[in-house]
Design brief:
The chain is of the alpha+beta class. The protein has two domains: 165 residues, Periplasmic binding protein-like II (D-Maltodextrin-Binding Protein, domain 2); 205 residues, Dipeptide-binding Protein, domain 3. The chain is built from 17 helices and 19 strands. InterPro entries: Peptide/Ni-bd (IPR030678), SBP_5 (IPR039424), SBP_5_dom (IPR000914).
Length: 517
């Protein structure tokens, strides 16, 4: 399951004592970190006036620089790049280290950027790309599934790479555009040093000497970056501060320039004269597991979907910053179906469907966790309105994450990344993935997916994937979609272009960030 880097977004309540201790602790930590030097980059910067270093505050520490099956894009996107990348909409695939590509159902051929070097000075070329692709398939169970139709990788020449296929690979490019598809120096891979001393091709390099383990990560401008004019800062500092109160206090006091925040702090951010950038990361929805048991009647599933009011969840949990979706795929993604209208809240119609089903006594246990309580309580009340008895089993986030899909529960409300491809979604939710813990067979979906994979061209494949979305909707196998937003509060006098990629939690588009002053 693709889960958010920070886990569920909390609603934190301030206490003056904790707030004072937190801000003093943060100032001390930043002061100690600053003793290691934060002005070196400005002194090295070229031009009449050096660009300032931008200081981030985030609530997650750096464990290592591994890219496979990790949720560390806050850090890894600072130093690494992939063959392709996601545009800010989280759906459009755009050039990265590959300036163009050609895709058929038998191969994908990439034309690479020329004159690119890794941070350790190793030339970026087709051989380096092949080595990375081979590592992905060999070392990551997830990539093994994504590359199930890949038969081989070929360095055609120095600037061209060919991925050979035995069939369609619809999720290959979308996943190569994510952080798990970043390209690492082959020298670092051979030496086994990349997880501690990263060497990518990104605009910033890891400055280990000026970083402080468990506290501060420093990225200095890469002086051999292929597009130096695009770098808008004199360097990046990322400070680990595990408390939203302390993060906002440090930002307000000028100790930070950008800080992770939450919906509950939006008013304080505004009062303090700070900017707030928000973007959708993951997507919550009601995942129905037991569609052959307690949720076997389609009319009951449809009634549940209609009785749900995701806008209420979004408002209660995220203070109006979340949007409701009517289908799993966003517009622009393969699988999006403009004819699917979803299940807008309609209690009258929901009750009618329950009546048509014979007003059965439906009861089930919903696993949930402390921070999700507002959504869970609303869901329970909405189900009670149509005669469905939902018992909440409250637990911590850590407990929830280990049991929600163990086969015990008929449904769960949780999130996954909104940029997962239609094929990823099918494999996870309706095939043999973790999102189908009761191993329910969905032959109608299997058939349409087989047709999509065997499609002779992109248009035919798009039609088939859109049909999959329609079946999921008509059968009410999934519904109640609403965004989990993420927030960056920032000093408007110090930075601009504070942009992130929709559906990619915790990652700033560092190459677009501009320091002011």
């Amino acid at each position: 399951m693709l889960t958010s880097t920070y886990g569920p977004q909390s609603t934190y309540l301030s206490r003056k004592g904790r707030q004072l201790r937190g801000v003093l602790g943060v100032f001390l930590a930043i002061a100690v970190a600053a003793a290691c030097g934060s002005d070196g980059q400005e002194k090295k910067a070229s031009g009449p006036k050096a660009k300032p270093v931008v200081r981030f505050g985030v609530p997650v520490p750096l464990n290592d620089w591994e890219t496979l099956d990790r949720g560390n894009s806050t850090y890894s996107s600072l130093v690494y790049e992939g063959l392709v990348a996601l545009a800010s909409d989280g759906a459009t695939i755009q050039p990265g280290l590959a300036r163009e590509w050609k895709e058929t159902d038998r191969e994908v051929t990439f034309t690479l950027e020329e004159g690119v070097v890794f941070h350790d000075g190793t030339p970026f070329d087709a051989t380096a790309v092949v080595k990375n692709l081979e590592r992905m398939r060999a070392d990551s169970p997830r990539w093994k599934g994504i590359m199930s139709t890949v038969t081989g990788f070929e360095a055609v020449d120095g600037n061209h790479v060919r991925i050979k296929l035995k069939g369609s690979a619809p999720s290959l490019l979308p996943n190569l555009a994510r952080s798990q598809g970043y390209i690492i120096s082959p020298v670092a891979l051979d030496a086994g040093t990349w997880a501690k001393s990263p060497s990518g091709t990104g605009p910033y390099t890891y400055d280990q000497a000026r970083s402080v383990s468990g506290s501060k990560v420093v990225g200095k401008v890469f002086d051999r970056y292929r597009d130096p004019e695009k770098i808008g800062t004199g360097g990046i500092e990322i400070h680990f501060i595990n408390d939203p109160d302390s993060l906002l206090n440090a930002l307000s006091a000028g100790q930070l320039d950008i800080a992770y925040s939450t919906a509950s702090y939006s008013k304080r951010v505004e009062r303090n004269g700070l900017g707030l950038a928000t973007y959708p990361s993951s997507l919550f929805h009601l995942q129905m597991y037991d569609t052959k048991g307690v949720l076997s009647d389609k009319r009951i599933r449809q009634a549940i979907c209609l009785a749900m009011n995701p806008q209420e969840y979004a408002d209660a949990q995220y203070a109006g910053y979340s949007k409701v979706w009517m289908q799993r795929m966003r517009e622009g993604q393969q699988g999006y179906n403009p004819d699917v209208k979803g299940y807008p809240h309609d209690l009258v119609k929901a009750k009618q469907l329950m009546s048509e089903a014979g007003d059965p006594k439906v009861s089930f246990v919903l696993p949930t966790y402390d921070i999700q309580r507002p959504t869970s309580e609303l869901f329970r009340a909405q189900m009670a309105a149509i005669g469905v008895d939902v018992k909440l089993e409250m637990m911590t986030w850590g407990q929830f994450y280990t049991v929600y899909n163990n086969g015990k529960y008929p449904a769960a409300i949780l999130s996954d990344f909104g940029d997962a491809s239609a094929y990823d979604y099918y494999l996870y939710k309706f095939s043999t993935g973790a999102g189908n813990p009761k191993k329910v067979a969905y032959p109608a979906l299997d058939k349409v997916v087989e047709r999509a994979l065997a499609a002779p061209d992109r248009e035919a494949a798009d039609t088939a994937w859109a049909e999959m979305t329609k079946i999921v909707n008509d059968e009410a196998l999934d519904c109640g979609y609403f965004e989990q937003p993420y927030f960056w509060a920032f000093n408007k006098q110090k930075v601009e272009n504070v942009n992130s990629t929709a559906t990619v939690p915790a990652a700033i588009r560092y190459a677009e960030l501009v320091a002011k002053g």
